[in-house]
Amino acid sequence: DTAVSQTPKYLVTQMGNDKSIKCEQNLGHDTMYWYKQDSKKFLKIMFSYNNKELIINETVPNRFSPKSPDKAHLNLHINSLELGDSAVYFCASSLMQGANYGYTFGSGTRLTVV
Amino acid sequence: TQLLEQSPQFLSIQEGENLTVYCNSSSVFSSLQWYRQEPGEGPVLLVTVVTGGEVKKLKRLTFQFGDARKDSSLHITAAQPGDTGLYLCAGGSGGSNYKLTFGKGTLLTVNP
Predict the structure, then answer these.
(1) A29: DSSP letter
(2) Interface of A with B in 6-25 (CB under 8 A)
(3) Is A99 within 8 Å of B98 when comparing Cβ atoms?
(4) For A13-70, how does the pLDDT look when each residue is reduced to its tens digit (9 = 90+)?
(5) Contact by Cβ (8 Å): A44, A60
(6) A4: helix, coil or strand?
(7) Predicted confidence (pLDDT) per residue in B34-88, tens digit
């Protein structure tokens, strides 16, 4: 049973399209995250939600809109896709916010914008 | 902006050798985590250290958090091909807006 599952695993789409990535965790964690990993493997936080409430919103274009319908789900919708959005997007969760809590990551969604 | 520098960026060694990977910052972190990532997968947590000077061991892996909580090291003894992967350190800070900031990683290849 996958702890943090993301769909789809691969997404190839044209510039200008709108797409969504879904994430679900069955760990009972309170906090969920979206990270972007670029071609050089650098992981950068995009958003963080705690119990459905947005708590971190890094400098991300407003074409990216997260949504958390409940604390087990955090989806990412991207409007008007650009070439520079191509990357691997990871969803993660942690029991709570704070220093003692490690993150459990999904296996990623590889987005390719052509 | 808090930055974590990892060194070396790439490391290729033979099975049985020892190695150390470093993670350095000019910022103080409330915690330091190490992850390993394999191709096509997400990072997997190896350890969390929260106290300055703390040392944790996980089989052949030894993790240390610097006294000033600005740096960390990962030492692997008698490396095996199964240790191959991208090792990422991540520093935690921020109080009520706590978040992890990742280093750029060390890509380790252990050759049989």
Answers:
(1) -
(2) none
(3) yes
(4) 999 999 999 999 999 999 999 999 999 999 999 999 998 899 888 889 999 999 999 9
(5) no
(6) strand
(7) 999 999 999 999 999 999 999 999 999 999 999 999 999 999 999 999 999 999 9
Q: Does A4 touch chain B (CB under 8 A)?
A: yes
Flag if A100 and B48 touch (Cβ within 8 Å): yes
User: How far B107 CA sits from the closest chain A CA (Å)?
Assistant: 10
Output the six-digit token pair for B88. Answer: 């990422």
Would you state the structure tokens that stand for residue B2, as one six-digit string?
A: 């808090």
List all residues 6 or more positions away from A44 whose beta carbon is below 8 Å from its beta carbon: A35, A36, A37, A38, A58, B102
Closest by CA position to A5, among listed A111, A95, A108: A108
Q: Which of B12, B9, B8, B4 is CA-nearest to residue B31?
A: B4
Q: How close is the nearest chain A Cα to the Cα of B30, in Å?
A: 6
> What is the token pair recorded at B94?
């921020």
In which residue are the tokens 């040392």 written? B55
